[in-house]
């Protein structure tokens, strides 16, 4: 009898062990598998019951709201994680700007500047908009896109519009010269890459022959975005630090302006241009649901 009872206990223990190792099906697990709603938009109006996704979670509005970031106000009820639990739809590789937000920033952009081209370029500089807190990541993305917007008239211009400048961008004293022609190194792309030595340096860093074929920057959206990210992440320009370091180390948006145009705009060089960049940055951080931080001017 005892032997049979012990056998029963052994069998029950085996079943219990099996149950312990089965994953529990909880509300949290179910929420993690939920699809993400349309990403939250700071300018959209949400009424009671309206839904949006933000920071990898779905949220439901309890009553009318506009420009109140989910999680920062009790107007939003957290419905749990969605998608992969970390990013909203349309944010490949965890990029903090969704395609909907990108479209909102650049409603009149040239079709050349695709969101897909931008996200494809991110692998070249994985630290971009992916360093520090969520706030810092969003601030850096907004800062980059604000400067890019200023340089290109809202992503309208792919090439420099003043054609009379074109022949000036060949520094023939460089040992490699200007193999594509003296007038071939004019401003192109989101950061308006110019000069033969910059095409050479960017091409070397990216593994692309941009010195020999600078036209790739106006023909391939991913290459164009990569040149912008190259400058942002690796070049001090006329400043004392890269724009990337300025944003992730707390120097502020103003130092990104200095890294791009130095005293041509900063230190009283052109206050209206500085303000134009600041205005775009403030608009973009609002779209991304964060704050601009300090040191906006230079």
TrEMBL record:
Q: Which Gene3D superfamilies match?
A: 1.10.530.10, Carbohydrate-binding module superfamily 5/12, Endochitinase, domain 2
GO MF term set: hydrolase activity
Q: Identify the stretch(es) annotated as Disordered.
A: 69-89
Entry keywords, A to Z: Disulfide bond, Hydrolase, Plant defense, Signal
Has the keyword Hydrolase been applied to this entry?
yes
Specify whether Glycoprotein is a keyword of the entry: no
InterPro entries per the record? CBM5/12, CBM_sf_5/12, Glyco_hydro_19, Glyco_hydro_19_cat, Lysozyme-like_dom_sf
Q: Which Pfam families match?
A: CBM_5_12 (PF02839), Glyco_hydro_19 (PF00182)
Name of the protein in its database record? Glycoside hydrolase family 19 protein
Per the UniProt entry, what species is this protein from, by scientific name?
A: Streptomyces sanglieri
């Amino acid at each position: 009898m005892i032997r049979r009872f012990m056998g029963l206990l052994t069998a029950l223990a085996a079943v219990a062990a099996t149950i312990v190792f089965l994953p529990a099906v909880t509300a949290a697990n179910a929420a993690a598998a939920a699809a993400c709603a349309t990403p939250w938009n700071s300018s959209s109006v949400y009424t009671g019951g309206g839904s949006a996704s933000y920071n990898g979670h779905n949220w439901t509005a309890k009553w009318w709201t506009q420009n109140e970031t989910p999680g920062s106000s009790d107007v939003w009820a957290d419905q749990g994680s969605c998608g992969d639990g970390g990013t909203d739809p349309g944010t490949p590789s965890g990029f903090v700007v969704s395609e909907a937000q990108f479209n909102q920033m650049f409603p009149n952009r040239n079709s050349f500047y695709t969101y897909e081209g931008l996200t494809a370029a991110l692998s070249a500089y994985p630290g971009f908009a992916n360093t520090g807190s969520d706030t810092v990541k969003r601030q850096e993305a907004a800062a980059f896109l604000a400067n890019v917007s200023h340089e290109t008239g809202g992503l309208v211009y792919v090439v420099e519009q003043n054609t009379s400048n074109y022949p000036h961008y060949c520094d023939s004293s460089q040992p490699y010269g200007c193999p594509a022609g003296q007038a071939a190194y004019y401003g192109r792309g989101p950061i308006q890459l110019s000069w033969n030595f910059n095409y050479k340096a960017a091409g070397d860093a990216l593994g692309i022959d941009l010195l020999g074929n600078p036209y790739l920057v106006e023909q391939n959206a991913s290459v164009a975005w990569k040149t912008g990210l190259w400058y942002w992440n690796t070049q001090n320009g006329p400043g004392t630090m890269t724009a990337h370091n300025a944003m992730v180390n707390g120097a502020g948006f103003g130092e990104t302006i200095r890294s791009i145009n130095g005293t041509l705009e900063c230190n009283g060089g052109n206050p209206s241009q500085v303000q134009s960049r600041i205005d775009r940055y403030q608009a973009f951080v609002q779209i991304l649901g964060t704050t601009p931080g300090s040191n906006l001017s230079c």
